[in-house]
Amino acid sequence: MAARSGAIPVPAPPLQWPLVGRDEYLDLFEATLADPRAHGFVVYGPAGVGKTRLADECLARAVVLGRRVARATATDGTRQMPLGAVAHLLPAGVADRRYDLVAVFDEVVAMLRAADEVGPLVLMVDDLHLLDPSSATLLAQLVDADLLFLVGTVRAGEVVAASLAPLWARARVRRVDLEDLPRAGIDTLLHLVLGAPVEGTTTSEIWNASQGNILFVRELVLGSLEHDRLVLQRGTWRLTGPLITTARLAELVESRLREAGPEERETLEILAVWEPAGLSDLEAMAGHAVLEALEHAGAISLRIDGRRQLVSLAHPLYGEILRAQMPALRRRRLLLEHAERIERRGSRRRGDLLTVATARLEATGVADAELLVRAARLARYGRDFEQVERLTRAALLNGAGPEAGLLLGEALHELGGFEEAESVLAAAEDVTDVDDELYVLVAGMRYLNLMWGLNRSDEALVANAIARQRVGDRPGATALAVIDGMLLTYSGRPRQALELLSSLAETDDPWARAERAIAELPALIAMGRPETAVARARRAYAERLDFHEPVAIADASIHTIHEIHALLDSGRLTQAATLAEANYAAVPPTVAPDIAMWFAFHVGRAAVLCGRPATAVRWLRDALARSDEHHFAGPRRLILSYLAMGYAWLGDATASAAAVVELEAIAEMAFARPDQEFGPAWARVAAGDVPGGRGVLLAAADLATARDHFGVEAWLRHDVARLGGAPTVVARLEELAGQSEGLLVPVYARHARAVVSGRPEALVAAAEEFVGIGAGLLAAEALTEAAAAAQRRGDRRAASASFVRAGALANACEGARTPALATPASIVPLTARERDVAMLAAQGESSKSIAERLYLSVRTVDNHLQNVYGKLGVTGRRELAKALADLPDVTAG
Q1: Which of 473, 482, 524, 476 is nearest to 500 (CA)?
Q2: Helix (H) / strand (E) containing 72
Q3: Is 449:421 a contact under the CB 8 Å cutoff?
Q4: Fewest CB atoms within 10 A around its CB: which of 37, 198, 447, 729?
Q5: Which residues contact 64 (CB under 8 A, 6 or more apart)?
């Protein structure tokens, strides 16, 4: 198994996977083992849920607790042999008398009593339901005699021997029912097994396919690794295609369906092709008895959808395995029968056209062009762009018109096929009537692809200008003007975009309103109006949800992405981070890939602003892997800039420089152009060239000024202040603070002014403001500066207090190493004796008690305490405990 793109090969997953999400059961086992009234612990659950793994861990816990243990496994083979499962545990020669259970019992009792030094033997029996009657009877008697503590597993739905069942019915043996792992548990398990984070949509796909069954998860992971579908990119595991099943997984599924007779098997195959199927339809075909038998066997499930009762296979993998094993002609017959049945009913339901089109296309390779286009439109509404691509390619081969080109072009754009999308959309634009509203949709999609997909913003602007001339004042003119505003925003001209958009009359067209919001929100953020953008983003999102059938327009999530960006620029960092993480986790697999990329990017951006560089690097690498996979060249440059900054703050100059080298090999992106200088600037700082870093930041800030990007300009100039250039930027920061919305820019300005003034109390006040918005690293830097300022003033107590608090905040910054943290105040460390006295005083000891314990005079103890108070910047014993906890290890010898 190897990583993709020439990366270092990664080791195969361990043979035995770690136990995850079962701590409560292990605690319950230990409590049961310690209870003299309890004589066993039996785990029930379906195949693959992890019963044996849990039982093995219980046995290991028993060993740690000093108990003697043994293990046995019951199988179909041992079931036919008296005492077959436990023969290896019996005294020599006893197995030969297996038909005389009384004699066997007496000898086993004698053996167990002779060895009973630490309590009854803990015996783990896997698959208790497969025990032969003799073994079951013997074990039941030994448990009743308090000579055996039984740990067992039982497959759900199976019946155990009559001699064993009464044990847990009489509460002698504790029964637990094990369920599949939730999604969070699967995420943790995959991280531990693969040794690196797993991106969110990959975890979701694995969980959806497995439904949390650990054995299914294992086989899906192993199959996908073997076929290079699950790959390590940028330090994160992610899927690059559909999950791959293994032969063992097919055998496991087949074993669950093995008892189905010919009629049941045919019904399962119908469901594998048709699911979900209406209950009444399926009853007419298969009959009540067959469906009841399948439901009793756990092979199908029934759910209510409005007034319909729908039947599906009980597990997502059943359909995949059944379809893979189904002969091609049978599958073709079932597909066509399904299509014909729907058409005879008149294709009344919304999804019927899509079902018929895909069934006919899969069965025969052809279908009516109009049907395919209508089906593609339905698939697009569900944002299943792979399905849209298949349907529209077939439609165009069958003579479909420009709408198929629009749908195919958009699908190709969303799937990362930008060059082909340009060709398809250009062809569709050429044949579209200029009076047709379809022309506006095709043009808008084409120019969006030119800008975001191909990073050719100037060409997009020129093309849209030509389109506006062609349309003139006919219908579509306003929509093309809105597209022009969007192109201006994303080409780095927010002022022009807002001026254009403000000149347009309000419209009731939902498409134009949605496009206008997409253009307007980032322009507002860029120009220092993030609070306005937050309110409008929320309104646009609500309006977009009411617009149920969008074509050639971004998912509603784009408004949430803008809201997160605005919250960050406003200084509401925690709120932004929470919103970004929640939306990232909720991204469905069918959504456009750039949506998850932008959510991951903003989680990383939030971590940067909060001062958590390690977290930032983890999320930015996730975003970068997504941009790599889908060829988002422009966004990749932006992400690399922030990633280089994160590495620099961690002190990793080599990784920071490498990210900058990669960034500089990519063509410039007009959108967020000043942001793309953070990485190069901080890479210089990490390499020791602080003046050079300041110079890059100042040049980027001047560029931001020229392009009306006032929000990022404030960040850039504040970074200059952090690197010793506060006098050069403080006036402009104060000017920006006066015209910017939100909390962030004003506190930047007040901090820069405090640095210039050199007043420690002003620096402490700025630090408290940074703490208030969640910017821990900036707060730690400001307190370090405050400590130095107080030290210069000769106020050792204030210097110590600021330094201790700075250390506590810096400890939460994941190893951040910035220049402002590298110049702490000169604090006098505690002597060993002072630390001893302080520790005892912090625990509430009186001076007299401390004196007696340390063989000192009370006066000496009080003198030591006064010195400690001065060094730590506290005023009495009540503040000692926290100060000592925050204190770095600076004890003098």
Answers
A1: 482
A2: strand 69-73
A3: yes
A4: 37
A5: none
pLDDT at 234: 84
| Nearest to 887, CA basis, from 764, 802, 761, 783 | 802
Beta-carbon-side half-sphere exposure of residue 591 (alpha carbons within 13 Å): 22
Give Cα separations from 879 to 48, 834, 874, 876 (angstroms).
55, 16, 6, 6
Model pTM score = 0.78
Taking each helix axis from N to C end, the angle separating 744-757 and 710-720, rounded to the nearest 10 degrees, works out to 30
d(C-alpha 803, C-alpha 801), whole Å:
6
Query: Cα–Cα distance between 590 and 729 in angstroms, integer?
Result: 46
Largest CA distance in the chain: 104
Q: From residue 726, how far is each of 135, 686, 714 by CA, in Å?
A: 82, 19, 12
Are residues 580 and 617 in contact, defined by beta-carbon separation less than 8 angstroms? Answer: no
CA torsion through residues 540, 543, 548, 552, sign: negative
- Specify the pLDDT at position 458: 87
715 residue type, one letter = W
First to last CA, the chain: 53
Q: Extract the runs of DSSP E, i.e. beta strands, from 793-836.
A: none
Look-up of token digits 């322009």: 523
**Two tokens, residue 119:** 């309590």
Q: Which residue has the tokens 């496009």?
A: 515
Q: Judging by beta carbons within 10 Å of its beta carbon (0-12, 13-18, 19+), is residue 755 exposed, middle or buried?
A: buried
**Chain position carrying tokens 């770095």:** 888
**3-state percent helix, strand, coil for the chain, nearest multiple of 5:** 65, 5, 30
Minimal CA–CA distance to 429: which of 380, 392, 368, 471?
Answer: 471
Q: Is residue 276 exposed (0-12), middle (13-18) or buried (19+ Cβ within 10 Å)?
A: middle
CA distance 585 to 594: 14
| Structural domains of the chain in order of their starting residue, each with its CATH number | 23-177 (3.40.50.300), 183-244 (no CATH), 432-570 (1.25.40), 578-811 (1.25.40.10), 832-886 (1.10.10.10)
Does residue 50 come out as left (phi exceeding 0), alpha (psi in the -120 to 50 range) or beta?
left
- How many other β-carbons are positioned within 10 Å of the β-carbon of residue 628? 18
Q: Is the dihedral of CA 813, 818, 820, 822 positive or negative?
A: positive
Return the pLDDT at 828. 55
Consecutive sets of 10 residues in the chain, 893 residues long: mean pLDDT of each? 46 80 92 91 90 93 91 85 81 64 77 75 91 87 88 88 81 88 90 87 87 89 89 86 83 76 85 83 84 82 81 84 86 87 76 85 87 89 87 91 91 90 91 73 88 87 86 78 89 94 82 84 96 94 73 79 96 96 83 84 96 95 87 88 97 96 91 95 93 94 96 97 94 96 96 96 97 96 93 84 89 91 59 78 86 84 83 77 62 43
CA 791, 792, 795, 799: dihedral to nearest 10 degrees?
-20
SS3 133: helix
- SS3 call for 639: helix
Q: CA–CA separation, 755 vs 732, rounded Å? A: 15
Tokens of 630: 């889908």
Determine phi and psi for 665, rounding to 5 degrees: -85, -5
Taking the alpha carbons of 827, 828, 831, 836 in that order, is the dihedral positive or negative? negative
Calculate the dihedral angle through the C-alpha atoms of 523, 609, 630, 518, rounding to the nearest 10 degrees: -20
For 348-394, how does the pLDDT look when each residue is reduced to its tens digit (9 = 90+)? Answer: 677 788 888 888 888 888 888 999 998 998 888 878 888 999 999 99
| Strands 230-233 vs 236-239: parallel, antiparallel or unpaired | antiparallel
CA atoms within 13 A on the CB side of 512: 18
